[in-house]
Amino acid sequence: MGWVAIDGLRVAYGDTRVLDDVSLRIPRGSLVAVLGPSGCGKTTLLRAVAGLLPVTAGTITVGGRLVTGPGVQRAPEKRGMGWVPQDASLFPHLTVGENIGFGLPRTKQSDDLYCEPGEAPGGVAGLFAGFTRRGRANRARPASSPVRPLIGGPGSVPAAPGRGPASGTPGHTHLAPAPITPDRSRQYSRAARIVELASLVGLSDLVDRAPSQLSGGQAQRVSLARALAPRPDLMLLDEPFAALDPLLRSALRTEVAALLHAQHNTSLLVTHDQEEALSLADFVAVMRGGEILQFGTPADVYERPVDPWVAGFVGDTVELDGIWRGGRVDCALGSLPADWMGAPSDVGAASAPADGPSVRVLLRPEWLTLAEPAADSKTDAVTTAIAYAGHDALVSFTLPGGLVVRARVAAPDLPRVGDRVTLGVRQNALAYPLA
Question: Quick one: 358 and 413 in the same domain?
Answer without folding.
Answer: yes
